[in-house]
Amino acid sequence: MSVKINKLEIENVKRVRAVKMEPSKDGLTIIGGNNGQGKTSVLDSIAWALGGESFRPSAPGREGSVVPPYLHVVLSNGLVVERKGKNSDLKVTDPSGQKAGQKLLDSFVEKLALNLPKFMEASDAEKAKTLLNIIGVGDQLTELDRKEQELYQERLYTGRTADQKAKFAKEQPYYPDAPKDLISASDLIKEQQEILARNGQRQQWIKEHDQIIDELKQTEAKINSTKEELHRLQALHGELLSKEASSRKTPEELQMESTEELERNLSEIEEINRKVRANLDKDKAEEDALQYKTKYDSLTTEIEAVRKEKTDLLSSADLPLPELSVSDGKLIYKGKEWDCMSGAEKLKVSTAIVRKLNPECGFVLLDKLEQMDLQTLQEFGQWLEAEGLQAIATRVSTGDECSIIIEDGYAVRNDTLRATGEDQGNAAGSAAAPATPAFKPGIF
Ligand SMILES: Nc1ncnc2c1ncn2[C@@H]1O[C@H](COP(=O)(O)OP(=O)(O)OP(=O)(O)O)[C@@H](O)[C@H]1O
Ligand SMILES: [Mg+2]
To answer: In this predicted model, what pLDDT tens digit does every residue of 354-405 receive, in sequence order?
Structure first.
């Protein structure tokens, strides 16, 4: 069961002359009044009583009072907390009458519940960290954030490189008519030499054939001129005729092959190879760019997976308020970051988080609730009640929403003293305080 404030008596602390209160167990108890009348002084007094020396005001005693400050707080766990005397020393008494001290108070009093502005003024990152730590996913989320950052940086670098490579590939010239592979000059020369060798053979054939024909002609001439040698020559003639027939080649066989193209290729080889190399470079650049693009896409998938893991982690966590979460190390409520939340939303978020920080602390002090309109105030009061949380708040107002009105350090209207029906007067304040109205329950 969380600890609440049952009763409160303050005398001569800062602007307060004398105020007694019995705040509602759950929900809002609003201390109203005009500016400078002592509302915040009441909250400062509670913080000093329960929070210890670090909450001591710089000038705690009321100016003009010869009587030192007096604080008396009765808590729902039976502890009685007092500060009185010249040095305002702390006295904590448990229900059995045993003395206790600040250490016991610290075990259930959440410091931020006494000083909500401290939480509200913290950086976005600190607020989010507080929330993540109370829901127990701080470490895991930090690790996921680190992982996401790392992947993001890697993807950023990969993306830039992919763009550069693609740009480089695009700028490279391309020759669609160039061969796929580099041409070798020695192959061409070898081929040329082979053709020249074959052609040499052909030349030889032609030469041989021409010689035979010459010889035949001479022989025929001799046949005519040398009758005596006719027979011999006829025999020779026959022989030569058959020789001629066997050495005769077809016109196709004698068709000369051209080395013209090869010669042209040889002369163009440097230019062609330059183009081939350019094409190979372009292909390589395109392949590089594609590889980086593929890696970029796979990093995107990984980043999305980490982000989903983070969302899953948060959606399965026990958050103090529906629609309250953390994204990119910042609090998000109803889809908005802290600087875009309304004042009322900020108060609700802060209260919910501080409430979770120490569930034993059943109360929270809220200064300056005038930023909430009556409708929002009522909804906030209902939410506090549903949470079983006691909030003691101040508001520049003298309307019906206030449970107690402070004027010149006194409670001039006090609807909180319902159980006892006591008026709020005491030695220091009753003489100057106007009569306390009859019991009137606060509207919240
Ligand atoms: N020790 C003190 N003795 C007497 N008056 C003090 C003391 N300390 C502060 N004051 C005065 O109290 C007034 C502020 O009191 P407090 O902050 O409680 O008022 P408030 O009702 O909360 O005002 P606001 O609506 O402006 O917030 C100031 O005028 C300040 O000068
Ligand atoms: Mg104030």
So the answer is: 999 999 999 999 999 998 999 999 999 999 999 999 999 999 999 999 999 9
How many CB atoms sit inside 10 A of residue 342's CB?
14
Ligand nearest to the CA of residue 13, numbered in listed order: 1
Ligand 2 center–CA 351 separation, angstroms: 18
User: Within its chain, how far is the Cα of 323 from the centroid?
Assistant: 19
3-state secondary structure of 227: coil
pLDDT of 418 reads 63
| Per-position DSSP letters for 28-92, written without gaps between them | EEEEEESTTSSHHHHHHHHHHHHH-GGG--SS-BPTT-SSPPEEEEEETTS-EEEEETTTTEEEE
Residue 26 tokens read as: 């759950």
Separation of CA 199 and ligand 1 centre (Å)? 121
CATH 3.40.50.2300 fits 5-110+358-414, yes or no: no
Cβ of 2 closer than 6 Å to ligand 1, yes or no, is: no
Pocket test for ligand 1, best of 14, 46, 392, 402 (most atoms within 8 A of CB): 14
Query: 0.85 exceeded by the pTM?
Result: no
Q: What are the tens digits of pLDDT across the range 121-179?
A: 999 999 998 999 888 888 888 899 899 999 999 999 999 999 999 999 999 999 999 88
Residue 158 to residue 75: CA distance in whole angstroms:
62
What is the 62 CA–ligand 1 centroid distance (Å)?
10
